[in-house]
TrEMBL record:
One of its GO terms (cellular component) is core-binding factor complex. The gene is cbfb. Gene3D superfamilies: Core binding factor, beta subunit. It is found in: Nucleus. The keyword Transcription regulation does not apply. PANTHER family: CORE-BINDING FACTOR SUBUNIT BETA (PTHR10276:SF3), CORE-BINDING FACTOR, BETA SUBUNIT (PTHR10276). GO terms for biological process: regulation of transcription by RNA polymerase II. GO terms for molecular function: sequence-specific DNA binding; transcription coactivator activity. It comes from the Eukaryota. This is Core-binding factor subunit beta. The keyword tRNA processing does not apply. Belongs to the CBF-beta family. Keywords: Nucleus.
Length: 91
């Protein structure tokens, strides 16, 4: 699948893969499974701050390696996410 499609909303609403992922379900952080819970939480938070994370949708077995705000990966801190994207809940 291409990284960007012309009509993203239509693709999201109509494709079975995205319909499955849009349902409410458990998502788990998949990094550092052998480490204690508190350390995994800290590593997840740090990875998110660095603009990356690995997560899995438990119900479907779908694993994603996320990379967001790539400018931050190169040390360019002038690009900041809007408040819409900065409200993350970590449990």
């Amino acid at each position: 699948m291409p990284r960007v499609v012309p009509d993203q909303r239509s693709k999201f609403d109509n494709e079975e893969f995205f319909r499955k992922l849009s349902r409410e379900c458990e998502i788990k952080y998949t990094g550092f499974r052998d480490r204690p819970h508190e350390e995994r939480q800290a590593r997840f938070q740090n990875a998110c701050r660095d603009g990356r994370s690995e997560v899995a949708f438990v119900a479907t077995g779908t694993n994603l390696s996320l990379q967001f705000f790539p400018a931050n990966l190169h040390g360019d801190q002038s690009i900041r996410p809007s408040s819409t994207f900065s409200h993350t809940i970590v449990s």
